[in-house]
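Q: Entry one of two.
A:
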Amino acid sequence: MPELLLELFSEEIPARFQRRAAEDLKKAVTDALVDAGLLYEGARAFVTPRRLALTVAGIPARSPDLKEEKKGPRVGAPQAAIDGFLKSAGLASIDQAKITSDPKKGDSYVAVIEKKGAAAAKLLADILPRVIDNFPWAKSMQWGHGGLTWVRPIRAITATFGAEHDEPVVIPFTANTITSGQTTYGHRFLAPGAIRVRRFDDYAQSLERAKVVLDLDRRKDIIRADADNLAFAQGLSVLHDEGLLEEVAGLVEWPVVMMGSFDQSFLEVPEEVIIATIRANQKCFCLRDSKGSLANRFLLTANNLATDNGVTIVAGNERVIRARLSDAKFFYETDLKLPLEHGLPKLEESVFHAKLGTQFQRVERLVKLAAEIAPKVGADVAEAKRAAMLAKADLTTGMVGEFPELQGVMGRYYALAQGEPAAIANAIAEHYKPLGPTDRVPTEPVSIAVALADKLDLLTGFWAIDEKPTGSRDPFALRRAALGVIRIVTENKLTFPLAVEPDLLAFFHDRLKVSLRDAGARHDLVDAVLTNDSNDILEITRRVEALSALLSTEDGKNLLTGYKRAANILAAEEKKDGKSYSGATASREVFTLDAENNLINAIESVDAAAAAKVKANDYRAAIAALATLRAPVDDFFEKVLVNDKDAAIRSNRLHLLAALRNTMHLVADFSKIGG
């Protein structure tokens, strides 16, 4: 079957857009093919700095003929409705429609619409320019005279279609004065000449010969392997950075890895600064020596084959890195001359948020909040207050001004340099953590106190001014802050009830549900243990774990079945009787069977035990007590008819089931559990 080859050859596409662009191109074209009735066998998208490419295999030569029925108005409907139906169905008169009969709705008109299939090449000539015109670039520019907006100017378009052994045809269309053809170009410097291509196989091979590695992931693999090999040969190891690797692979079409060096004296600067400088300014990888220390070497990835073994390229990168490291060293040494407190007055000039005051005002709130939290997490109050006061001070330093991503990190270095205790210095560095799902949480008490204070102040502040996340919009990263609180509390096993307003507590509940579901917990179990005023995150988590453990056993499964049976009977009878059964008036004098007495005895025993264990936050013990109800519940439903003819006996047995329901609800709302 025929295959499509599409290439959009352009000026350099920003690396951060490339992978998404390849996915968007694939989706846009394949969705349009399916909508046109062209079901394909497979599709692959590729991207390099100068091209977006797509191959779609197994496209039929024609779309199939289609026949569909369009339902119209009833017979005798107003003329306006009939006219609208004729127009939408493409009929000249109502006589062209069929009449169908429905016993309930009567006779109505139906149009049989036949749509002839079309040649795939013709359909593609319509699809491809629409895809280009409507491509969802995050940022685009207008260029040329055709009005097309694209991320960068398009220079050529390849669009061929044909079977494996046939000469493909060019899909004819124009985008911004660029007419489609079957000509592409190789590497900008190494093989800039025009290349005529027929279909994907020879296209990929021709580009390889022209020093273009088409596949982004293959370029990444090449860079990673060459970097590791080059480092190993020097007794070093690479500081792998997946984000940087993705970016670098998007900057080159023919990756060539080389090693450079910088002066040993720069290693006096904190390694985070060196790494940030080399990464940000030159997109290079740093290295460690055999002892794990940062080495005065780096790896660069060139987009060219050097005629001088890379001497000129390496020297150019070394020159830039030397200048940037000199700047960093200057900032670092200058910052060290002044204590962190020196920067606090400057925070009064920095607005945190128009409605929430300055950074200094925020620091004052953090100091107060950290002092309140410290005793609850086992931290020294004085150290927590000191760490909170200095937590934002490094925002005014020259180093953080140059590299904002180093806030906190530099604060720790400066705090240690001025003689602050390690607990305070570490809290300054860690109070932003965790920054994401893979980032570690603080574990030291002072760090925990300040980190919780930072996140809770953020959340309560923005809730107070009604700046809450909406949909996918969360400009102040409040969801991340809430998840950070949850992770800090759960991973450190802290009993830390949240003293926040109900709406913010509900937000925490939503984030906790997400967190627990990501950890493998069933959503219905989370709902079962949550109440509107549940504010102890650790307790909620433990309840979900204990409930999950119970329901994984046969006793748990059977008990849930018994509960649901009891709940269903109660719901039906309460509806029929027009009243609720509380369970409090179940009378032993009315019981006639041992199974009834056994169940009430078990309920009373378990009720007292479960209530005590729940009060003591021993949820596993409460669950264990609940599990003992399985046998008497099974026995009851096996031997007892609830809806006895005697009204008093029936009422008493319904109250008994209500008592069972009430006792189980001490532990969780089992009505919310599926299964």
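Q: Entry two of two.
A:
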Amino acid sequence: MANNLLIAEKPSVAQPIAKVLGCTDKQDGYLSGGGYLVSWCVGHLVELAEPETYDSKYETWKKEDLPIIPDVFQYQVTASTRKQFKVLKDLLHRDDVDCVTNACDAGREGELIFRLVYDEAKCNKPMKRLWISSMEDEAIRDGFAGLKDGKEYDRLYEAALCRERADWIVGINATRLFSSLYGQTLNVGRVMTPTLALTVAREAEIRAFRPEDFYTVILSTEIGDLGSKRFSGREEAKELLIKCMLAGKLTITKAEKKEKQEKAPALFDLTSLQREANKRLGYTAQQTLDYTQSLYEKKLVSYPRTDSRYLTDDMEASLPNLIAKAEKVSGLKPTEVQDHHCVINSKKVTDHHAIIPTASVDKADLSELPNGEREVLRLIATRLLEAVSSPCIYAEAVLEGECAGERFTSKGKSVIDPGWKGVAKISEKKNDDPDDTAVGDISSLHEGDEIKITQAGVKAGKTTPPKSYTEDTLLSAMEKAGSDETPDEAERKGLGTPATRAGIIEKLVRIGFIERKGDKKTKYLVPTHKGEMLITVIPEAIQSASMTAEWEQKLLEVEKESYSADQFMDEIVSMVKELVDTYEIVQDAEVLMKPAYAPLGKCPHCGADVIEKTKGFFCENKDCKFALWKDNRFFDSLSKKLTKQVAEQLLSRGRAKLKKCRSVKTGKTYDTTVVLSVSDNGAPQFTLDFSKGAK
């Protein structure tokens, strides 16, 4: 009996597919039954080989060995994935397998993961493609009913290869170039580095900002307050104030009240969902992606890695049912539902439609979901209800008048019908513009009318600096990089893709180029000293958001056969070659690249300063081996972390008091004092002191 072999991206996706197909027979690394074999990858089973695979000389990082541009790219199976790759290879070459179906995630990376396994196993059997946007049983059945020829996705695979190889070429060569020149590991990436550059530029703006005082004359009247333009000097404002008080009245030059509408927001794509979850729930982009991916695998939401904010035309009939289910999940109701065409537009859907709850959502026990998943699901359900609701209708009033030769204005906004904003009871943000003041009823006023000034004064203010990036605003900047004026509805350029942006931010944090600062509610993404120095020394070509955004757009064009993959790679190679050939080390680099670490205390072994770095607290004396690692087994055994505060106490007093330590064996909590000593070779040693007088 002939079998169709299906390969999913991971076991959690393979299992529901196998269930629909009736594959109940569990084997080692796959499931079988009903003419199907269902197996899985575990992420990237096959990866690009490291440079030393091509030549052993690359084991040492030297500028003279650059650039490294393989004539033919080599791939390798990592040790951790070798077992599952063998399972897949054996299945691919089984005599009873006559067809192979790619059931990996329906996107660029899913295509790459499957094809690399297929090619590395040297398989040439007919290839099909399962392309679905939901893990619901019906969606899986429909997907199998409409299986595509795998060759239809060859261009998608080409784009994926271009992305992977471009990242390798830029990352390997630039990282080795700058690391060897500056004597420390400086990770560089085609998308990662321009993203870092955005944060560095923003912090430079903040540091360069100098607050400026300004003064506004406020005139009080029977219908409200009106404000003048800003004055840089108090005396100038006072002079106008006196003139206005002497005049005693204001002449109306404009009294206008218009009814306006604010359309409901579009449905979520991944980036807009990540931004909203960060803004409202404080989740990082990666957390939101993880929660949404889990919801997808639980059949509760549609495919998360989408860049579309609309649904396809064929979904219109099912929309009322989805709205009803969203109501149940969120506990909310849409306001007067407008034409469903506001969320339906096949022309604006590429590979996957917007993220929405599935028809299965009302069958789930939401109380059993982890809190993060439950909150994100409610956010997605609420957005569907908002998107199909009527516009928010409001009245905008503008009042202008003249006094003492100066123009005074007042603006006001009052909601007539909250529309979509009434779904989740979204309130208007308070207007912080000092130039805007509240306006009363102006219906009886006309141009030329005079109104009495009842009171007047000078209001002082200060200009405010731009804010550091949050996850929300950095994602927005990444999305719009290279096309700041592009509207949300247009096909966007940007740094990375919706699927990769979260990982880029997390990697920057992990390697110590960016750190999160702020309170629990708002976390800011701020470049570290190391991150700032990297951007200082690398050329514009590597850190340019516009250039990298253009490359992302070209990758999309490769998918659409409107741009050559060879041409794209030639551009990358040319840029890297020029970088290696022309780059010169920055003058005074030794001083520039020196970490700006403030010492925490003195080394108990040699007496030199101890400074904090990404992974721990280290003695500045290179010959001394003293180090307090943040990832510390001793402190893990106490269910505690070796924090900066604890490290400072250990260095200054040789001991640190810890409260509410938890026994790994018994689970009981206790207080104790950690005592630090040092071995002959400088290695730290810890003991516990339970005496009552221990401090």
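A: Comment on entry two: The chain has five domains: 3-146, 164-207+468-582, 213-263+392-462, 270-387, 601-689. The chain has a mean pLDDT of 89.
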